[in-house]
Design goal:
heterodimer, A: about 290 residues, two-stranded antiparallel ribbon, about 75% helix, B: about 425 residues, alpha/beta, five-stranded parallel β-sheet, four-stranded parallel β-sheet, 15 strands, globular
């Protein structure tokens, strides 16, 4: 039983990264109807940002956690204004290709700087030790990741559900025409929302940096699972993607602990196929209205 | 249109009688197809295994070409040696397509490297089919010299038997009695798991459990396996990690994070490259004992090569880089000696040959299974306080003579 709880905690930590990444994707998709393929690249840039802060500038990890997502969010805003914006009127495939191309460019820029080998940073002070969770000990930093991710997801939910900005964003997401009819400038919110989504991707990258090898391809590999998460949760559904993120983390951890390798390796995609058969628009997604 | 078809037909008929279509003398100096030698390096240039071989191995092969030309000068069979390269992305299907393209369209005389065993096994099949040479360096599966062996495939550098019987046996003899093995779930990892399990049992140890992990691993996360290590009964004293490249970096990073050493579970690494130690920093691996087929700072010869290599690439060579250099050089030497690049003649030239060069010490190219056997080394990662210069992370504990380093030719191999 203790082991089961331990695997569960671990699954929630893994799910934290999925939830944060899926949240960013969902926010962007909801507002812009853009499937942001470059999300993984910004996750990777976030991790390298943390590496630069800690290893090259000799600064604190916590500073990186505060500064890097904001800085990359600003980069996101520039990208939205310069590129994404121009293609939103066209077939969604154009923006998909744009963000895919952007991913390849960003990866190669990082490869040129850091080569293809990976780098690492240690868990930050004072979380390098184990935390005592009563029944067992667990790496303190990983516990922090879970708590922090839940707080961020709750914060975003509060922002969207309880503030005026959130109300406008939700209205623009769900009924853009009607919102415009009320005299609200919807396009004003598109750019900051894109930047915010990118900032979330960067935030999960910074957060992941002390737990894994930091390499130019880390995002491209991970994003495949995150797309599955978003599809399971329902494309564009904020709540669905967060919930699906944590759920997939759990399913993966339990699968790896108790199921044979051949099953656990495809489990996420089996779940995705099952959910799509049962509810084609994902667990919490709405059927797209045919215009 | 009709003219084109007519010309093509004439050419096709012509091919039956003369060697080439396109005119000109076909074989002037020496017996070379296309008047040139084409060396093709096929490996991972963007993924998890790109740091351990990748573009730096292409640089090493180019160094071999330079050295060959410098050695023979005007007497060289040709000055026209071309090095081509492609990225197989660790995918067997991509590797097959690229290999076919290299042999057929680019007239490659030999394919070199091909890490990722599943991809290497696919290329070995193509080599057999096309009757062209393939020197495997990056892949470790013993199937290349076992059930899948063929006349045109040679296995350079290292294999899973070697890694298991030196690292596995040595560690079991020195106290690692119960193992939990995690391996990447594809040809290489499965082969490592099998060979390590055999070697550990033969030395009187036991394997408590072994688990496959996804390859490629999209999440870079091994925490479930690391947690599982401390929940197994009986409790293992050693975690045998068979992952390689960036995957290995992830496992070791998380092994330290989950503090398994403090829980009495020691780390054993099946395959490690100097680039992995460089990524992790020696602190993360201090004291880890592993098998090293070649080390850049072992003697003056290696060091001189490593200095030249560093000037070109900004990194110290991995054993795979050095082996690519050696393989390219030995191939060129064989072509020079045989005065032809005809694959069957070169195979005869190479079989049974004894070689001593930068990489192969007391090397023999075994005729029975085409395994290129040579001295290997048991190495240990230094403490960071003992590291005197960047990249000098390894202490060589002892030399494993060629005869002991590799297993006997497999009975499964029929050429």
């Amino acid at each position: 039983m203790v082991d089961f709880i331990r695997f569960t905690v671990n699954g929630l930590v893994g799910g934290s990264f999925y939830a944060l990444l899926a949240l960013g994707l969902a926010v962007i998709f909801g507002m812009l109807r853009v499937v942001n393929f470059a999300h993984g690249a910004f996750y990777m840039l976030g991790a390298f940002g943390a590496y630069m802060f800690v290893n090259e500038f000799g600064l604190d990890f916590w500073l990186a956690l505060a500064v890097v997502p904001v800085a990359l969010g600003l980069v996101g805003i520039v990208i939205e204004r310069a590129f994404v914006h121009r293609l939103t009127r066209l077939d969604p495939l154009y923006n998909f290709l744009l963000t895919f191309g952007l991913t390849l460019i960003l990866q190669d820029v990082v490869k040129a700087r850091y080569t293809v080998s990976s780098v690492t940073i240690p868990p930050p002070y004072p979380l390098a030790a184990d935390a005592n969770l009563g029944l067992f000990h667990f790496p303190a930093y990983r516990v922090f990741v879970f708590v922090f991710a839940v707080a961020v997801c709750a914060g975003v939910w509060w922002l969207l559900a309880r503030t005026r900005i959130g109300m406008v964003v939700r209205a623009s997401t769900e009924r853009p025409e009607l919102t415009r009819a009320f005299g609200i400038d919807v396009s004003r919110w598109v750019t900051p929302v894109f930047g915010f989504g990118i900032g979330l991707a960067a935030l999960s990258g910074v957060l992941a940096a002390p737990t894994r090898a930091i390499s130019p391809l880390m995002g491209a590999d991970l994003i495949i699972v995150v797309f599955a998460v978003v599809v399971i949760g329902g494309l564009g559904s904020i709540f669905g993607s967060v919930l699906a993120g944590f759920a997939i983390g759990l399913i993966q951890a339990w699968g790896e602990a108790y199921a044979p390798a051949i099953v656990s390796q495809v489990l996420v995609f089996l779940v995705m196929a099952g959910v799509l058969l049962w509810r084609p628009s994902g667990l919490f997604g709405r059927e797209e209205q045919m215009a | 249109m009709r003219r084109t078809i007519g010309a093509l037909a004439a050419c096709t008929v012509g091919v039956l009688f003369v060697a080439g279509c396109g005119g000109g003398p076909s074989k002037p100096a020496g017996q070379l197809s296309n008047n040139k030698i084409v060396l093709a390096v096929l490996n991972d240039q963007s993924g998890v295994y790109s740091a351990l071989s990748g573009k730096n191995s292409v640089a090493a092969v180019n160094m071999a070409v330079e050295d060959f030309k410098a050695k023979y000068g005007a007497n060289a069979i040709t000055q026209n040696v071309e090095v081509i390269t492609a990225d197989h992305q660790n995918k067997p299907d991509v590797a097959s397509t690229k290999a076919t393209e290299m042999y057929d369209r680019n007239n490659a005389d030999i394919i070199l490297d091909v890490p990722t065993s599943s991809a290497a096994l696919a290329v070995a099949d193509i080599a057999k089919q096309k009757k062209k040479l393939y020197f495997n360096i990056g892949a470790a599966s013993t199937d290349l010299t076992g059930v899948k062996c063929n006349k045109y495939t040679f296995h350079y550098a290292y294999d899973t038997w070697e890694l298991a019987h030196s690292t596995g046996t040595t560690l079991t003899n020195s106290g690692a009695k119960s193992w939990y093995i995690i391996y990447p779930n594809y040809a290489f990892g499965q082969d490592m798991n099998k060979n390590f399990t055999e070697a550990i049992k033969a030395a009187g140890g036991a394997v408590v459990a072994s688990d496959g992990t996804p390859f490629p691993n999209q999440t870079g996360d091994y925490s479930t396996q690391l947690l599982k290590a401390s929940t197994l009964t009986p409790s293992p004293d050693t975690l045998g990690v068979m992952q390689a490249g960036a995957d290995l970096v992830n496992v070791v990073k998380q092994y330290n994070e989950f503090k398994l050493k403090d829980k009495g579970i020691k780390l054993a690494v099946g395959l490690m490259f100097i680039t992995d130690i460089h990524s992790l920093t020696p602190d993360a691996l201090t004291g880890t004992t592993f098998t090293e087929p070649w080390y850049w700072n072992f003697d003056a010869t290696n060091r001189a090569f490593a200095d030249r290599f560093f000037a070109k690439t900004g990194a110290r060579p991995t054993f795979a880089n050095a082996a690519n250099y050696s393989a390219a050089l030995q191939y060129l030497e064989a072509v020079q000696a045989a005065n032809t690049d005809d694959a069957d003649t070169i195979v005869k030239q190479l079989e049974g040959k004894s070689v001593n060069d930068l990489f192969l010490r007391n090397g023999t190219i075994r005729a029975a299974d085409h395994n290129v056997v040579h001295d290997a080394y048991l190495a240990q990662v230094k403490a960071s306080s003992d590291v005197k210069e960047p990249w000098d992370y390894e202490k060589i504990l002892n030399t494993i003579p060629a005869a002991q380093a590799f297993g006997p030719p497999s009975s499964a191999c029929t050429m």
